[in-house]
Design brief:
Helix content: 25-40%
Radius of gyration: 23 Å
Structural class: alpha/beta
InterPro entries: AB_hydrolase_fold, Peptidase_S10
Largest sheet: 10 strands, mixed
GO molecular function, one term: carboxypeptidase activity
Protein name: Carboxypeptidase
CATH superfamily of the largest domain: Alpha/Beta hydrolase fold, catalytic domain
Keywords: Carboxypeptidase, Glycoprotein, Hydrolase, Protease, Signal
CATH class of the largest domain: Alpha Beta
Number of strands: 14
Strand content: 15-25%
Order of helices and strands: EEEEHEEEEHEHEHHHHHHHEEHHEHEH
CATH topology of the largest domain: Rossmann fold
Shape: globular
Organism: Niabella pedocola
């Protein structure tokens, strides 16, 4: 299962003030100047420790919520107490409720190299970008109140790792290896979280991490790092569209686990026989999952030892579930790559399908070939998100800078060695009786697919001793399942109830 590897996307800084839908904030209190061009020099000046505070209200589930928004940078310190980077963050704190004991959610997106923009203005934050009910871009660009935000039950900080958003390294001599790798990323972000929690007096708060995509690798590792290096214990971790979390699959297992995703996508595009199409998706998929684990996986493990008749029987069943031809499946020895699936399923109609969300269609230069020319869903999301986040940060939160907001930033080469984050999360849960886990997946996500998310949980908890603190939920959408309005309502309420249920009334003991 591949991680999202994207180049830096230049942020749009030209704004159309009149399209913003959110109410105007109260007068701005500038606590320290955001970075701007120096009067005496044409060079950009980066301040790793500066914030701007504004005051706002939002109506969530019919209740008016007053809050302050703090947008700015907070340093990453080295061992000698020197600032080596400044992380841009946006912190929302409810002001009409007592802070003591109020939950804090720390939110990361993925990539690696992606800013926090996606969940910030698409999921849990107090404003929501303008898209249609299925998540597609609309114009004019803008944003509005998010009536489903979780700010009513928890304060939230959205964090941009180094080189994403407005976050930058301080100084040319700082080694990038301090930031760009699975374990380096976890270490410096844990240090930064300690600084944030201390500065904003949140040690007494129940704490939650939420991560999406590679952000799930990040927060899974952080759960243990915060315990072991900072003695900071969490109440919950939310994984949105999780990666493999360093849990080894092997070639045969990796190939087999794709089939339920193929089946969900084929069902969506109505490429299955009537007996499958007439079923509800959630009623159809268990049959495919059972076949995957009990027939397809053993068959793939046999390789050339698999009898020809059995191979054809397996291919016939795969074709029925996936919408592909039996011939294509046999030509690939029962191992159909995701790229080929995205190209093949709608080939005869002249379309490809999206990697991160198979509901999206693309048009290639030619119908031939084994992979799409581009990711149809990602181009649509960049189209939808980039103008509003630049408009919102500048116009509503009053954070003004000439630095580009890196929706995707340069963080490569990335060191993926020694990724044990799934085991790290299991260890954190086993040693912290308060720690709960919620996993959310989109059925049409082909990069971090829903069945691999289930497989993670089976491998993380082989004894089943943790299952009373683990929840999994599937949604009829893709990687960012919250872009679909119906799923946004359901998934935010699920997080809201998860937070409430994981605040204990008894001591932390088994």
């Amino acid at each position: 299962m591949n991680k999202i590897l994207c180049c830096c996307f230049a942020a749009m800084l030209t704004v159309l003030h009149t399209v913003a839908q959110a109410p105007k904030p109260a007068p701005v209190k500038q606590e320290a100047p955001a970075e701007t061009r120096k009067n005496a020099s044409p060079d950009l000046s980066f301040n790793p420790d500066a914030v701007v505070t504004t005051n706002h209200t939002v109506t969530i589930k019919g209740q008016k919520v007053a809050y302050k928004a703090i947008a700015g940078t907070l340093p990453v310190w080295d061992e000698d107490g020197k600032a080596i980077a400044g992380l841009f963050y946006t912190y929302y704190e409810r002001t009409d409720a007592a802070k003591g004991g109020r939950p804090l959610v720390i939110s990361f997106n993925g990539g690696p190299g992606s800013a926090s923009v996606w969940m910030h203005i698409g999921y849990t934050g107090p404003v929501l970008l303008n898209i249609d009910d299925e998540g597609y871009p609309v114009q004019p660009y803008g944003y509005k109140e998010n009536p489903y935000s979780i700010l009513d039950v928890a304060d939230i900080v959205y964090v941009d790792p180094v080189n994403t958003g407005y976050s930058r390294i301080v100084g040319k001599d700082v080694a990038k290896t301090k930031f760009f790798g699975v374990n380096a990323d976890i270490k410096y972000l844990a240090d930064w979280i300690n600084t944030f929690v201390t500065r904003y007096d949140r040690w007494g708060s129940p704490k939650y991490l939420i991560g999406e995509s590679y952000g799930t690798t990040r927060v899974s590792g952080l759960a243990l790092e915060l315990q072991q290096a900072h003695w900071m214990y969490l109440n919950g971790v939310v994984l949105v569209s999780p990666t493999t979390l360093g849990i080894e699959r092997g070639t045969a297992t990796d190939a087999a686990l794709r089939l339920p995703y193929f089946a969900a996508t084929a069902w969506y595009h109505k490429k299955l026989a009537a007996n499958f199409q007439q079923k509800e998706l959630e009623a159809f998929l268990p049959e495919v999952e059972d076949f995957t684990m009990n027939q397809l996986l053993p068959a793939l493990n046999k390789g050339s030892l698999l009898e020809e008749a059995t191979k054809r029987s397996i291919a016939e069943k795969m074709a029925a579930y996936s919408g592909l031809s039996q011939q294509v499946i046999l030509q690939n020895n029962l191992d159909v790559s995701p790229n080929l699936f995205w190209k093949e399923l709608l080939r005869n109609e002249g379309f490809t399908i999206g990697r991160l969300d198979s509901r999206y269609k693309g048009i290639d230069k030619r119908d031939g070939g084994e992979r799409p020319d581009f990711n149809a869903e990602l181009t649509a999301w960049l189209h939808a998100f980039t103008p509003p986040v630049n408009m919102y940060l500048r116009n509503e939160l009053n954070y003004k800078t000439d630095y580009p907001y890196n929706v995707f930033g340069p963080v490569y080469p990335w060191d993926n060695n020694n990724d044990r984050t799934g085991e790290n999360l299991r260890s954190a849960m086993s040693t912290n009786p308060y720690l709960h886990l919620l996993v959310q997946s989109g059925y049409y996500d082909g990069a971090c697919d829903y069945f691999n998310a289930k497989y993670n949980l089976w491998q993380m908890d082989p004894s089943g001793r943790l299952k009373d603190r683990i929840q999994w939920a599937g949604f009829r959408s893709g990687h960012m399942m919250y872009l679909r309005k119906e799923d946004l309502k359901t998934s935010t309420e699920q997080i809201r109830q998860f937070i409430k249920a994981s605040i204990p009334s008894k001591a932390a003991k088994y």
